[in-house]
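sry for the spam today, last one i promise. struct tokens for design, 381 residues
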């Protein structure tokens, strides 16, 4: 797995696994949490940040405006197109009693995506897109500034440290301080957006550092030994944190224990699924997950709306067929993550999972074939 192509396939698989974990999390399905040892909300959002950092290149620093423009075109333009569509839908639904939907306004359409990202309900999972854009912009601006003050690898040779290591250490320290302040209730209001950026940035820098310095060493560890070490370390973290490993990246809240724990679980969770991704690369499941990963943007943007459409269909069927089990209209109106489970049948959630993942994959694949013939741009990186 030494070629760039293989590495990209591995990262594609990792992205595919991560977006499935996001959908599972929104359905409150914990089947892939390894018996609760690796809960999704302790690392899954950070997978996308890590992968995006992995694909960063220093060559972009010589074309700063071009890089930012490219990222805006790739991330923000499709986001705002979808945001407009969901804003219109949300306006209609808010008048029909759906409490998680809000009428569209200039502020909600333009500004709120960078502050919270939950402005229109059905696309709330896409809050990550503007957040990732801000992290990428802060990263390149910071690196460009270090170049201007002549803080490069050549100048750091005297202290035997690379710029990537120095940046990671500094951003990690800032991130831990941010978590500590958030635990005291200080990362809120106007501080929420910069807090979110500072919280996410170390993992982006870790992706850069992994590719430049760590990957070659990490690959040498045998698979069985690697997984055994990860599970052992995670068990220790789990015990130290008394099982309270989940946190909210979007709100920069819910840090229940030591300020370093979110980064420790981010590393163990990412590393576990990275190793799994490498192990299944070139297999049929690996190729399928790679395809899912290439559609991660579309799954993130639309899977909640797909859940809503399934609920709408079920609501109509329940009203037309009196023999069907009752549909909870109150929850449908008030809970954006509501899933209809006839008779409380938990496996029924698999319908939502399959639809939330496969419909965006199929639509994206069809659009890509129409536009490119085959292949095309992939993922969030």
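last one done:
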């Amino acid at each position: 797995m030494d070629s760039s192509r293989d590495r990209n396939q591995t990262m594609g698989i990792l992205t595919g696994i991560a977006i499935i974990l996001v959908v599972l999390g929104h359905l409150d399905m914990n089947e892939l949490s390894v018996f609760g040892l690796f809960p999704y909300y302790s690392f899954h959002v950070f997978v996308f940040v890590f992968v995006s950092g992995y694909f960063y290149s220093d060559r972009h620093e010589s074309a700063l405006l071009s890089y930012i423009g490219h990222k805006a075109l790739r991330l923000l333009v499709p986001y705002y197109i979808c945001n407009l569509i969901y804003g219109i839908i949300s306006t209609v639904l808010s008048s029909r009693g759906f409490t998680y939907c809000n009428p569209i306004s200039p502020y909600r359409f333009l500004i709120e995506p960078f502050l919270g990202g939950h402005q229109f309900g059905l696309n709330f999972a896409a809050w990550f897109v503007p957040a990732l854009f801000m992290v990428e912009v802060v990263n390149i601006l910071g690196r460009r500034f270090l170049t201007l003050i002549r803080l490069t690898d050549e100048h750091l040779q005297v202290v035997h440290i690379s710029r990537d290591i120095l940046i990671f250490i500094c951003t990690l320290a800032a991130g831990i301080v941010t978590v500590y302040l958030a635990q005291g209730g200080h990362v809120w209001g106007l501080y929420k957006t910069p807090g979110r950026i500072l919280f996410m940035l170390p993992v982006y820098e870790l992706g850069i550092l992994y590719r430049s310095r760590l990957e070659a060493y990490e690959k040498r560890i045998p698979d069985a030994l690697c997984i055994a070490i990860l599970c052992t370390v995670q068990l220790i973290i789990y015990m130290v944190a008394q099982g309270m490993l989940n946190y909210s990246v979007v709100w920069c809240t819910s840090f229940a224990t030591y300020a370093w724990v979110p980064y420790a679980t981010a590393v163990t969770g990412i590393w576990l699924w990275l190793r799994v991704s490498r192990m299944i690369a070139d297999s049929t499941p690996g190729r399928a997950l790679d395809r899912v990963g290439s559609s991660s943007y579309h799954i993130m943007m639309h899977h909640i709306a797909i859940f809503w459409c399934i609920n709408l269909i079920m609501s109509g069927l329940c009203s037309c067929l009196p023999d069907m089990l009752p549909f909870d209209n109150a929850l449908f109106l008030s809970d954006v993550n509501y899933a209809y489970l006839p008779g409380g049948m938990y496996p029924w959630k698999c319908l939502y999972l399959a639809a939330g993942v496969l419909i965006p994959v199929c639509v994206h694949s069809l659009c890509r074939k129409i536009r490119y013939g085959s292949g095309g741009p992939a993922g969030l990186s």
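The CA atoms of residues 242 and 257 lie 8 Å apart. ok im logging off now
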